[in-house]
Amino acid sequence: MKVLVIADGPVEEWMGKPLHAEGCSFHVAAEPEGVAADLIIDPFFEQHPAWINVYKEKNIPVLIGSICLTLQALNVGSAPIARYNWWPCATNQAPLEISAAESHQALFTSFLERLSIQANWLPDTIGFITPRIIACIINEAYLAAEEDIASPADIDTAMQLGTNYPLGPFAWCEKIGKQHVANLLQALAAENSIYTPAASLLQ
Predict the structure, then answer these.
(1) DSSP string, the chain
(2) pLDDT (tens digit, 9 = 90+) per residue, 22-61?
């Protein structure tokens, strides 16, 4: 099986696992057009969502890193495309949050098992589970800082000591990317105003 990874430079691991699997050869290309493969992994899909048209035309299995754009919104139809949670917000041992049509799940599960990655199949919703919860925690932290309840550093320390989080919300936000967190909250807020992002998170 030839696996194509879409990236601008060398890629040695994916979701914390080395890109090595029996019976698979991994190749890296900056774009999917004109490259033959049996499976494509696009960790940076949200940077070029128009490529969904290329993936639908190829009609081969594709894994896209997509938090805000659902398969339904992308209108993938019957194409064998799965979206997964790419945010660095869980340990490498945690199951991969992923969504695909039920008819395609066995195919992707088989590939993930080769990489020793467990799939947690979820409904095709904006934000999956973990990103949605973490984005809300980060948003509350920004609101607390805006109200001068505590400094960002003190909030991070309190959350690490009080809840045993691996990172405080501000450190988590920096690792994920402030714009990615804001994008998810805005997408969720379009359906429910309780997700409206803090003003300082949008700056």
Answers:
(1) -EEEEE-SS---EETTEES--TT-EEEEES-STT---SEEEETTGGG-GGGHHHHHHHTS-EEEE-SS--HHHHT-TTS-EEEE---S-S-TTSPEEEE--HHHHHHHHHHHHHTT--EEE--S-TTTTHHHHHHHHHHHHHHHHHTTSS-HHHHHHHHHHHH--SS-HHHHHHHH-HHHHHHHHHHHHTT-GGGPPPGGG--
(2) 888 999 999 998 888 999 999 999 999 999 999 999 989 9
Domain residue extents for the chain: 2-121, 130-201
Topology given in CATH for the domain delimited by 130-201:
N-(1-d-carboxylethyl)-l-norvaline Dehydrogenase; domain 2 (1.10.1040)
Integer Cα distance of 44 and 21 in angstroms: 22
* The pair of three-digit structure tokens given for residue 73, joined into one six-digit string: 């919104």
Architecture of domain 2-121: 3-Layer(aba) Sandwich (3.40)
79/40 Cα distance (integer angstroms): 13
Q: pTM of the prediction?
A: 0.92
**CA gap 90, 72 in Å, rounded:** 25
